[in-house]
Amino acid sequence: MKMKKYIYVILLGITMGLMSCSRVYDDITNYTNLTPDAVWTDESYSTQYINQLYGNMMNYVTQSDAPATEEWGLWQYTVWTTFYSDQMSVAGSGTKSAASFGTSYQDIRNLNTFFANVDKGNYASKKWLKGQAFFMQAFQYFRLVKSFGGVPLVKEVITPSGNLSALGRPRNTTLECFNYIVQMLDSAIVNLPEPTAPGAVVSGYDKFRVNKPIAMILKGEVLMWKASPIFCTTPNATYWNDAYTAVSAAKTYLDSKGYGLYTTKIGKTPPYTGMFYDKAGCTKEWIWQKEYSYPVSNSAGLYGMKQYSPTWNLVQRYMMADGKDTLTSAYTYDRKLYWKNRDPRLKQTIAYNGSSYVFPAVPGAIPNPNRHEWIFDGTIQGDYSGASGFLSRKGIDTTLNILQLATQVQTNWPIYRYAEVLLDLAECANEIDSHRGEVAGLLTPIRSRAGIVNLDGSYGLASAPNNRDSWLKIIMNERLVEFAYEGKRVYDIKRRVLFSDFRGYKFLQGLSSIINVPGVDALKLKAARNGATIVIGKLSSLSLSNDDVYRALDDTMAKSANPDQLYQQIFTSVVLTADLAKTFLNPFDSNALEAIPNAVLLADPMVKQSVTYGGPFNPKLN
User: Which domain holds residue 20?
Assistant: First the structure.
């Protein structure tokens, strides 16, 4: 009886908070007779129960989990080296955790309540609701396993007690957890609706909800994690075959429905950039996304031009324009003009000093087509020097004024793109000798869409050594540049145990562009505001603002017959090293799986620590 009262109160609170005003307040007396059974036999109430579980899930998938990778600024240089001590914090759950015990198990508890009661109802959408719940259950456990390995599997409703966070049971093996997650996803795939085409709305099914192709992609991802080095210290052919089969099935299904890479060029905007703004057309590639619409919501926190500071390390990971590295490319690499002849995705992802970056000066104004982003140091400083000399420009809506970007960006957030399915399948194929020959064919469409020049008939891949290790480096680097700032890299590092990348860097670095005062003074730049000749050394005496200098630089570069030569006259560049403490980046491979937080161990003694951190539990699969 106590339990029924508890469920009733919880369900009533959820329903009151989430039902439309017309349903809740038109006849408030309806709630006088509301009982738990009435909730579960009512289609609207059951639907709202599932709706409230989308909040946490969508927050998880839109978090930018890029800290401590090449995508963020130099201030992150110590994070990997302090990983262990941060994980062992009593209150924390690790600096790079995919999940926390408390939040995940709260949602799992609510889902178990749903499963225990949903069959009391007999309404048309029950199958779809169950499909969504199966997906969410798999999603929550997958987040836990990605962080910690095996965790307690709770398949029934735990009666509330004084300590709601205590599960009162030991950790299941990692294999048991993976098997359960796949079981949940198989059930989701059977029950979820199938869209007839990209972007198609299923009648009676809200657009924001998960569907069959999303569940199929997640199943492939789950099986890839199961097979990856984070759990299998030696390759397991069976696991990789299982992953290949699942990802291949997802691709086959998507192809049959018309999904594929977004390849539309709108005006001068290339498809790799344009898909972030073409909300209707991008559904061909963006199978799962979170939508934003100002003023109801904005994605400024995800696409913050001033917030993310790419490193020199990231810039160096982009190939040359023909898809080859700087040593083997047919194009010449010039360190002073490092952005020249590079993979076009570099300029579409990263703003560097002097890069063309056109915004309106004020809201509604016509942008100056000659505007450049000036990120430099010296006697005067660029409009944003940043920590590394670079800015992120991916997903930035350049129709907005700089100030508007802080609150009005409504670029949607991609969660699963078709490009990821291709790269997932390439990675699985590379792990299987009989399928390795498929890898190049899966990568070339992505490179073609990116604008790589096809000089060798394979977008730079024709001469790639045909062995597992060489292809793996190519695939993982392709993932890094294709999905920069989409929250993928930190998980790739953990899953494939790529900490060696950071040990290889030794430091995270930036590139400082320094204005050459004599070089600029010799140009006798004209200030647009009053026509005065700008002499940098006498800037204050001319009553000119830095904006005057930027505009003068814009105009002078635009009029120059040789802007590359002019740039080198004005600027020199110096590599910045974040080695403030003279400490190399030295993350340990053993930290790929995290420690169970001490707070959890203290609250729930049956949950034991992993062997890496001094406990008895082995989270590995072999």
Answer: 2-192+596-613
